[in-house]
Design brief:
The protein has 7 helices and 17 strands. The protein is α+β, with helices and mostly antiparallel strands. Among the domains are: about 120 residues, C2 domain (Immunoglobulin-like); about 130 residues, C2 domain (Immunoglobulin-like, Sandwich), CATH 2.60.40.150. A hairpin with a 1-residue loop joins strand 3 and strand 4. Its main location: membrane.
Length: about 475
């Protein structure tokens, strides 16, 4: 009986083992392949949906033509699978090819007259080499840390606060003088009375002031008061006489320069006063007292004269015509008190001189008349990249030609130079003429007739 029961147990255990082996083989052979097949079909469905989304987004990219947003557009989400690399490469090549075709079809054909101008342009200024699509938008904000202190938000802006030049101009004091014109002798009498609240220029807290007097544009005749020692409120009470015809008074300017005398070094300039219209300040028939603020200045300003020219641009022909009309009240550069002026016009592009042209030379005059036209061929698409440097030169037979003064016109110029240029562009095919004041050349002291680029001049002051 014991052996029979033991045999029954062994049979039962073997049967259970066979059943377990059979179930394992069934799961291995049938269940696992079916599950893998289901998963592969599910991934295929997901890839199909991603492909549909990719095609729709590719169509949107074709319409927009935005290459810079390609990387962000091909990503559906962080949970969905990525688009294959082959699809991304094909999309990129297609969009690049379409963009290239659009650029080739929209770029205008240039005239043969402008080939020489384009050859001198810098490489970065060619329109075909510019690719603005890859740059980030200018209005993109930079991430900032929360809680960071910004000092600019706590600055107190005072109502009385001004720039240092204006503050310095307030501390230069005032000057009192009188004007009177003698109609019989045709003489203008300038009487310097007193100065008040001058700044201290010496270490002892005082100054030794005196005044120079000019009647511009004539600088050959000048007068000077006596020096008053150690005072900030000097009383001069001195009169000076300028012979001048009555019809010239309207074009004359009274220039007063206040200096601090120094025995062992160069005299320091305190400031200056320029009275441009004499008839506005006084009727000149009787002696009139005038108070003026002394404007801050470090060097004595020089009146270099003015030049009158007209600008005319023809957009269809791409032709810019500058007509030099005349100059007046030029600075005397020769010993004789005259100059031999001529005008040189330089075409500048990005700080480089592309072309230059000159007028004829007028001998022994400070008020030359030219009426000569200077023409430059400039394509319309390059008008916002160029400027004109007008230089009035004094011709010397021996040595270098000297620069009397310069002015500049163009989009990047300041004051009247920019306004004249914009007015020319606003009224094409119409000559626009203006007077321009000459300013000192801030570059090389010698003539810049040599080939090569020339630096930009100091722009004329804003009128």
């Amino acid at each position: 009986e014991l052996s029979v029961s033991l045999l029954a147990v062994i049979v039962i255990v073997c049967g259970l083992a066979l059943v377990a082996v059979f179930l394992f083989l069934f799961w291995k052979l049938c269940w696992v392949p079916w599950r893998n097949k289901a998963l592969s079909s599910h991934s295929a469905v997901l890839q199909g949906e991603a492909g549909c989304n990719k095609e729709s987004m590719a169509d949107k990219l074709k319409d927009a033509g935005a290459i810079s947003f390609l990387e962000a557009a091909v990503k559906i989400s962080h949970t969905s699978p990525d688009i294959p690399a082959e699809v991304q490469m094909s999309m990129r090549e297609h969009i690049m090819r379409r963009t290239k075709i659009q650029r080739q079809t929209t770029e205008p054909a240039s005239s043969t007259r402008h080939i020489s101008f384009k050859r001198h342009l810098p490489r970065q200024m060619h329109v075909s080499s510019m690719d603005c699509g890859m740059e980030p938008p200018p209005g993109a904000e930079q991430p900032t840390s929360i809680g960071r202190i910004k000092p600019e938000l706590y600055k107190q802006k005072s109502v009385d606060s001004e720039d240092p030049k204006k503050e310095a101009a307030k501390t230069c004091g005032k000057i009192n003088f009188t004007l009177k014109y003698d109609y019989e002798n045709e003489t203008l009498t300038v009487r310097i009375l007193r100065a008040f609240d001058l700044p201290a220029k010496d270490f002892c807290g005082s100054s030794d002031p005196y005044v120079k007097i000019y009647l511009l544009p004539d600088r050959k005749r000048k007068f000077q008061t006596r020096v008053h020692r150690k005072t900030l409120n000097p009383t001069f009470d001195e009169s000076f006489h300028f012979p001048v015809p009555h019809e010239e008074l309207g074009s004359r300017k009274l220039h007063l320069s206040v200096f601090d005398f120094d025995r062992f070094s160069r005299h320091d300039m305190i400031g200056e006063v320029i009275l441009e219209n004499l008839f506005e300040a006084s009727d000149l028939s009787r002696e009139t007292s005038i108070w003026k603020d002394i404007q801050y200045a470090t060097t004595e300003s020089v009146d270099l004269g003015e030049i009158m020219f007209s600008l005319c641009y023809l957009p269809t022909a791409g032709r810019l015509t500058l007509t030099v009309i005349k100059c007046r009240n030029l600075k005397a550069m020769d010993i004789t008190g005259y100059s031999d002026p001529y005008v040189k016009v330089s075409l500048l592009c990005d700080g480089r001189r592309l072309k230059k042209k000159k007028t004829t030379i007028k001998k022994n005059t400070l008020n030359p008349t030219y009426n000569e036209a200077i023409i430059f061929d400039i394509p319309p698409e390059n008008m916002d990249q160029v400027s004109l440097l007008i230089s009035v030169m004094d011709y010397d037979r021996v040595g270098h030609n000297e620069i009397i003064g310069v002015c500049r016109v163009g989009v990047n110029a300041e004051g009247l130079g920019r306004d004249h240029w914009n007015e020319m562009l606003a009224y094409p095919r119409k000559p626009i003429a203006h007077w321009h004041p000459l300013v000192e050349w801030q570059g090389r002291a010698a003539s810049f007739d040599s080939q090569g680029s020339c630096p930009s001049p100091k722009p004329p002051p804003t009128p």
